[in-house]
Amino acid sequence: MFRRKMQSVLVLSLRKQSDFIPTDRWDAVPKAEVERFIIDCMTKVGTKRTHAVSLASNLMTADYRGHYSHGMNRLDLYVNDIRTGITVSKDEPSIEKETVSTAMVCGNNVLGPVVGNFCMKLAIKKAKETGVGWVVANSSNHYGIAGYYSMLASDEGLLGMSFTNTSPLVVPTRAKEAVLGTNPISLAAPGKKGDSFVLDMATSTCALGKIELHDRKNIRIPLGWGVDSQGKMSDEPKPVLNGGGLMPLGGAEETSGYKGYGLAMMVEIFCGILGNAAYGPNIRKWKTTDRVANLGQCFIAVDPEAFGPGFSDRLDDLMNSCRRLENADDEEEVLVAGDPERQHMSMCDIRGGIPYHQRQIEYADELAEKLGVKPMKKC
């Protein structure tokens, strides 16, 4: 019975993941052990412990929710940024100016999750006092999953929104050069008994990692994922990776890719433009450390009680109305944003930890040996 239940939840949890995620060999690691390992790695290279704790919580949560591209998979990026000194850990974010409902924050080039936590907690405080809190930051860095911060607000009974700009990877509609980031959007709305709506999405058709994975497997990509250096759609990954770029959410202009382009611009306005940070093509290239990232980020908290009464009741009714819809032929049940992540978390809880593919475990072991820290202990 246990095995059947675990396999059933695993199938559900992998629904939205890449076809390349293996189900044959994956070892579970307790959540606390994942955090311990990340903290040890980061403090070993000079990260302040409080900063390492913030990062560890964010990366562990990403993996726990099934967003493996932004969890342990990104640890080397943060380690390298601290080691090279391109990101610092001696400072703290600071408020440059504020009103009762808004604030402009300088991240002082510390780790993105440290900036994100500071800003969203400030937005939450303002929302509880005035109904709305809107905080924008500059001089920040990669902050993990956007949903982590929006959920900080929803856990307090507030609507939470989180946005960040990123290195330029996306080619605007009708163009042939990448000048916008994947610029994610997240909204978390508090539901009844923890059943919250949690949207966490990029404004590109797919993540860069999916293109890289297809390239390593020597497999074609679907048309609409990326373009070559001339702005032409390609089903070959190499032209996309070598001089091309990702397409906006929606793909080609004929399939409304201009809408994803517009959403990416909206995020850029909220973050880089409003925050006086680097923006668009001015942001450093992905995985380069020739200069500081100076990312712009935006955090919003809203008290639903400042508006119509019965917010959570109506949200619960809407979500369950969608879930109860008859599914199309050969399709599984209708879900709402946040459901796939809840299914993945249930699978992790059944396993007693977060499952990682053997290659990820090997990478972590290699990093542990390189840094001289204790390897992760599996369940």
Automatic annotation (TrEMBL):
Keywords: Oxidoreductase. The keyword Cell membrane does not apply. GO terms for molecular function: oxidoreductase activity. Gene3D superfamilies: 1.10.1530.10, Hypothetical oxidoreductase yiak, domain 2. SUPFAM superfamilies: L-sulfolactate dehydrogenase-like. Pfam families: Ldh_2. The keyword Cell membrane does not apply. It comes from the Eukaryota. Belongs to the LDH2/MDH2 oxidoreductase family. PANTHER family: MALATE DEHYDROGENASE, OXIDOREDUCTASE-RELATED. This is Malate dehydrogenase.
